[in-house]
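note to self — DONT lose this again. spent like an hour looking for the file last time. sequence + predicted structure for the chain T wanted, 258 res
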Amino acid sequence: MTHESHRVQMARSLGRLLKGFQSLTSLPAMRAQRSHPSACVPCRTTVALPSLFSFKPRDFSLPNSSWSSEIMRLYDHYNSQCEVEAEGGETQGGPWQRLPSYNRSLKYATGGVYLSKIIQSRARLFTRNIREPGAAFEYVLFVNKEEQRCVCIFQAGHLLEGPPGHVHGGAIATMIDNVTGTHATVLSGPVMTANLNINYRSPVPLGSTVLIESSLDTKEGRKTFISCKVTSTDGSKLHTEATALFLSINVSHLLRGG
């Protein structure tokens, strides 16, 4: 097998694996591990891997010691709606679903932990590459598939400063792209950003917690149009407005460099 054909075969395999993210968000929710009894995570069947690679990747969307009382309050508010009590005292999936967050997109796929060790093993997701909790991007996303909405609770760390005491506009744009892109992936499968139009209304104080809300405008063939806004947690102040266009892609074609 030539080097090029080996690369093509691997790209096709990765394309099939990365489709797992959309499947992940469409399956029923289940209770999280005992160490996080309040967390709501998707249930997904995985294949057996060698024991060396069978550990579960760290989920950055779960609370840590850097989270303020405000981000915790909102986390508990949305997380409590991931499961609701049905008749007879049993629990069932609620209107919202918490999306897990890893430091590489590969880890969303079945076998992704293993793949992340052999494919560009030093690569890290831009918003999840700071080891110090609370220093940069602290956030958690919840999606409501029935309402076609996504909500991100974002706490901006001290390494994101732009104007003195306030969050850099590029960091805000990064989070908007992250939230709308994740939402578009839930709705349409693998996508890439084609256009991102941002209007900054008022600066975001460094260290504060804000809400980033995303909603579907329309879908047209390969195109998914999303609207987004960044507000204070009580909704009284609008910080940023944005619209985004995403194009559905063939992941294997992307990985081949075509």
